[in-house]
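look at this one:
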Amino acid sequence: MVTKRKATTLIGADRRAVELDTIAAVLPIERRDELAELLTDQDVETLRHLVNEGMGDNTLRAITSDLAYLEAWALAATGSPLPWPAPEALLLKFVAHHLWDPQRREDDPEHGMPADVDHSLRSQGFLKAAGPHAPATVRRRLASWSTLTHWRGLDGAFTSPPLKAAIRLAVRAVPRTRRRKSAKAVTADVLSKLLATCESDSLRDLRDRAILMVAFASGGRRRSEIAGLRVEQLTSEAPIEQTDAPPLPSIAIHLGRTKTTSGEQDEVVYLTGRPVEALNAWMAMAKIDNGSVFRGIGRWGSISRRPLEPQSINLIIKQRVEMAGLDPAAFSAHGLRSGYLTEAANRSIPLPEAMEQSRHRSVQQASSYYNNATRRSGKAARML
């Protein structure tokens, strides 16, 4: 028999599930029913508010994922939902549970995340890998926590000296090797192997070939930008004239809102030659003249009206990597972005010119890819 309190909870969860559905177009949610039980009414209202404020889709997805994790952790660690605003002691507990020293834990089982909290999060699918969290993950979740606190009209202790000191000391105590989003860059030689797996005239091969070429040639576009690309963002440009060769087709891609831009600026990148031909071939075969450019393909060749998810772009690239006889674990969609700048360095293209196409805002970030291409083989690395 369901108690009155339990019945009320179920009704609330059902209502939240419906409310989450109303923002699904902006914020696709795969674990809707789980989230509906985990999140509070205020959580869902805050998310709806962020949607209405026009926050970027990827940021919203990340904040929703972080909020679900934080609520699950709070329930497991304290037995209660997240308090708003969170006291400084709870923030310090979060850091202690996630940034800990594996060597110290061997001598002190109480160090780090308690076993019962770990088991609860693992059984719900929130924890997968063993060991402490990456500092970047902890900082991102604290930033999401701070953002959600701010949007509730509250102040938090996220900038308190004790919290900053706790994070700094925890990171210093356990040195970690920073891993790239993609272990290996998809440079031109790797890209040619991937394209060789897309040589037929099938819809899937035409689509994947266009995805690979457009993503790379447009400056290493992010998977979210490729998944969300729409016909309305494309404009034809005058062909590029060549000496003793036919002119090359050219189009402009108006990026709109991206990870680093608000959408108010008209950020434009250009495609010339083969990528344009690959894109036109896919759109002509799929009969796409408006809406989303890259879409799902059904079992019998039917074209979906909905765009591919960003994660689908990543999976497509990994599938092509495997088909090419390479290691899927070594490559991801981000490899196209790092690969573009690495290839630019290999071809001695000036960094400012490469950044005009990649639209990196940070010279430091862009140059980290650019410089690594020449450092390994440079004289400084071959002193002996």
About this structure: The first strand starts at residue 234 and ends at 242. The chain has two domains: 4-173, 188-380. Residues 4-173 form one domain. The chain is about 55% helix and 10% strand.
